[in-house]
Structure formats: structure tokens, C-alpha cells
Amino acid sequence: MSQQQSNMDWMLKDLAESVPQTRHVIVLSADGLRMAQYGTETDTADRLAAACAGLQSLAGAVAAELPHSSGRMRLVVIEMDGGFFYLMAAGAGAYLAVLADEGVDAGLMGQRMRDLVARIGEHLSSPPRAGDASGATAPGGGLTA
């Protein structure tokens, strides 16, 4: 476990325990790699993180169609049978994702997620990945809340 992940564990736990019906809390990079998690198995967190990469890309493409939009995704909420999914921009190239059961207080969840992003935004930032031997780097997400 990385130092960054262990530093976030208690904060993710606080979010999960302060909002009843919260099932999974995940922090991921813009390219869909899990950075931290709470309340979920690693395989599930990895699948959700990968799905989030596509979702944030889709949301950004839709946002770009608005006349005065920067094209950056801030928050996506999906209501489905059995619960809700929240994806929030949480720093440069990082996102906070939450899966919650039906009956969750949506207003409380949004508030707690915003509070968490504000408190630990610098810890949630995903630095650009080191590239190959030539020194090239992968494109950075550069998204901020």
C-alpha cells in the first residue's frame, strides 16, 4: 500500500461512514487506475475505476457542447435500479467515485463529497506518469474540481 493511499484511507472511511447507504468509495486517476479505496474489494474497485475513465470522458465530450463550457466534467450522478453512482472531479487528473444503495441522501452525499475533495484535493492529484526510456510522458488529465 502506498503512503498516499494509507493517508487517504481514514478520509474515505469518514465519507463512507458519515453517509448511510454508502457501499464503495474509490479514488482513481483520469486514465482509470485505482489510487485508493474503501469498502470494496480490489477487483471491484479496479472495475469501477476503469468504467469511470470512460464515463468522465463521455461527460467531458457532452460538456464541450455547451457554449461557455471548458469541457471539464465536475460531477456525474447516475440513478439506477438499486442505487446511485457519483463521480466527481477531485484534483488534477483524479476523481472521487461513490456507489451507494437506494435510499441514500443524495444531498448529503454531494455535500460530503465536495467537503472531502476540498480537504484532500492535493492528496487526490494524480501526477503525470513517467514515460518510456525516451522521456515521453502520457497525456495528463489536468481536471480540477
From TrEMBL:
Stored Pfam families: Robl_LC7
Region (Disordered): 124-145
Protein name in UniProt: Roadblock/LC7 domain-containing protein
Stored SUPFAM superfamilies: Roadblock/LC7 domain
Transmembrane domains' residue ranges: 83-104
Keyword Cytoplasm tagged: no
Keywords tagged on the record: Membrane, Transmembrane, Transmembrane helix
Species classification: Bacteria, Bacillati, Actinomycetota, Actinomycetes, Kitasatosporales
